[in-house]
């Protein structure tokens, strides 16, 4: 069996079967993480798929290729948190599931075949203990594998699982594992992801060296309107970041942003505190810099 490092290197070299092996290995784990945050199996599946599509494009930026599992975990978790923040006009699941539970088991019907009831039960646990127990039942991994994936010690995993099981109500704790595991992703999930890979292969992408990926994403999103949450479309230019401790800025524009009004673009960027480079009177473009000093260009179309 090939190691994660070997699979990543092969995938970067264009071996889609190698990437498929990574999807097969980590699909239910990413799905578990997303479900542990969102409490919705359908959304969790979407987040897992989005994680793999982003990972496929960003694999060349992964420095420690043997840690691809924990890297995928961080991507899936961040996507889940971002999605959770965006949900509007929906009654908070947290408020519903935290409602006081009746101790009268005869009066309260518990249907462990209901996804809503499963989440209501699981959400009596805090997230720290909830995600490991969902991983345990859905991923079918050993505690050691879960520890490596989450980037914590084996003892911490054992402690969180014991605490979770202890805090779950005794009348359904013994049946919860079977109920959760019935929602595992099918083999079709891998196929669904892999069918989208060909469209991604031909997508042009420019990678920019930055010191802080999250800070750079926020800057490009806030000042230039880039949407890093979408799945890239064929035919569009996509920007990716390579995180480096000592950034060597690109001294010339690698691409240009377009605008129908150069004057309006200048005023908008200047109002955001971005320093603009002076241009000649009849120029149809101007340059400016991102926080790491990379030169960018704005061009009128």
TrEMBL record:
Gene3D superfamilies: 1.10.1740.10, 2,3-Dihydroxybiphenyl 1,2-Dioxygenase, domain 1, Winged helix-like DNA-binding domain superfamily/Winged helix DNA-binding domain. Residues 116-168 form the RNA polymerase sigma factor 70 region 4 type domain. Keywords: Sigma factor, Transcription, Transcription regulation. GO terms for molecular function: DNA binding; sigma factor activity. It comes from the Bacteria. Pfam families: Sigma70_r2, Sigma70_r4_2. GO terms for biological process: DNA-templated transcription initiation. Residues 22-88 form the RNA polymerase sigma-70 region domain. InterPro entries: Glyas_Bleomycin-R_OHBP_Dase, RNA_pol_sigma-70-like, RNA_pol_sigma-70_dom, RNA_pol_sigma70_r2, RNA_pol_sigma70_r4_t2, RNA_pol_sigma_r2, RNA_pol_sigma_r3/r4-like, WH-like_DNA-bd_sf. Belongs to the sigma-70 factor family. ECF subfamily. This is Sigma-70 family RNA polymerase sigma factor.
């Amino acid at each position: 069996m090939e190691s994660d490092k070997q699979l990543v290197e092969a995938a970067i070299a264009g071996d889609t079967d190698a990437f498929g092996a990574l999807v097969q290995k980590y699909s239910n784990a990413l799905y578990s993480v997303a479900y542990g945050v969102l409490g919705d199996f359908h959304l969790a599946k979407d987040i897992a798929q989005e994680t793999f599509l982003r990972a496929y494009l960003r694999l060349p930026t992964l420095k420690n290729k043997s840690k691809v599992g924990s890297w995928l975990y961080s991507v899936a978790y961040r996507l889940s948190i971002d999605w959770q923040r965006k949900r509007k006009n929906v009654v908070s699941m947290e408020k519903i599931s935290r409602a006081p539970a009746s101790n009268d088991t005869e009066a309260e019907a518990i249907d462990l075949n209901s996804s809503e009831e499963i989440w209501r039960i699981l959400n009596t646990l805090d997230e720290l203990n909830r995600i490991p127990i969902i991983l345990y039942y859905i991923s079918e991994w050993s505690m050691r594998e879960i520890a490596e994936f989450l980037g914590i010690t084996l003892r911490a995993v054992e402690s969180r699982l014991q605490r979770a099981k202890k805090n779950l109500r005794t009348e359904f704790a013994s049946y919860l594992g079977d109920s959760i595991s019935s929602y595992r992703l099918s083999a079709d999930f891998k196929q669904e992801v892999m069918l989208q890979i060909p469209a991604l292969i031909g997508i042009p992408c420019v990678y920019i060296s930055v010191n802080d990926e999250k800070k750079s994403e926020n800057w490009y999103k806030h000042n230039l309107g880039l949407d890093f949450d979408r799945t890239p479309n064929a035919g569009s230019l996509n920007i990716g970041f390579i995180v480096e401790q000592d950034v060597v800025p690109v001294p010339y524009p690698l691409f240009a942003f377009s605008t129908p009004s150069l004057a309006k673009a200048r005023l908008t960027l200047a109002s955001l505190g971005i320093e603009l480079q002076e241009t000649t009177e009849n120029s149809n473009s101007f340059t400016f810099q991102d926080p790491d000093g990379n030169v960018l260009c704005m061009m009128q179309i």
